[in-house]
Amino acid sequence: xxxxxxxxxxxxxxxxxxxxxxxxxxxxxxxxxxxxxxxxxxxxxxxxxxxxxxxxxxxxxxxxxxxxxxxxxxxxxxxxxxxxxxxxxxxxxxxxxxxxxxxxxxxxxxxxxxxxxxxxxxxxxxxxxxxxxxxxxxxxxxxxxxxxxxxxxxxxxxxxxxxxxxxxxxxxxxxxxxxxxxxxxxxxxxxxxxxxxxxxxxxxxxxxxxxxxxxxxxxxxxxxxxxxxxxxxxxxxxxxxxxxxxxxxxxxxxxxxxxxxxxxxxxxxxxxxxxxxxxxxxxxxxxxxxxxxxxxxxxxxxxxxxxxxxxxxxxxxxxxxxxxxxxxxxxxxxxxxxxxxxxxxx
Length: 346
Prior knowledge:
Helices cover 56% and strands 5% of the residues. It contains 15 helices and four strands. Strands 3-2-1-4 form a four-stranded mixed β-sheet, with helices on both faces.
């Protein structure tokens, strides 16, 4: 079997106009951002590549979105050197040129990184791994899209992917016992997802958009990107020695495209229902009035039986999406390598 990418790749249609508009707007802004970065970084040799993550990387952004950019420096540049600060300042100026808000101070994308740090094999399996670097590494695989020097970014992504495989590749793709080559990455994805859910459950800081807003994102776009990559890895187990190449080709897709590819591979027509759920979410989040009301909506109390708050309604909508994904998993998990399925659910 070949690792060649699908020729029939999903994209938003007239049935999902909000997704289509977000897709169009995001691609336009990415083109503008790439031009600005090329101008601002002209003659600067300290930056290996820049990738857009978050809603812009997923092509779900709107005029209210900020720009989460991952800046990857050359390995011989220390992140605290004046050269690194100059590169970061230039990237920040490129963001302002396009009219975006910069990433939040102190967030995952507030500091640059390097390929050496992202692909460092010595940090594999560390419980006390640097949390920012851990998150940056997974965003490279979950939702990142090149904004500057695409070939260099593709090489970074492949290196990050290979770091998760280590010595478990080779015959490991064909073996039916022992540790599957994807096990470490699957466990890191679960760790990242669980940590995000736990943090957001108790993050009541209104300066970060409001509890309801963060819950809506975690249970829609963040859920989709997690499930899409996890199931992509599971589906690749049907491709034997070509599993890595099959996944690598599809990492260039958005999370929604990845998920659609898995539905298509399983011959399941249920993806359009998922798209409708995401259409509703993207349409709502593009409305500034809805965003403001959701941010101010109270946290549902244990005795909130009315479902009257906007946060409660949003969570109920998210449950519909979760149910669709759960039903797909129950229908098709038996087709995948049992070791990978066990890592996903146990």
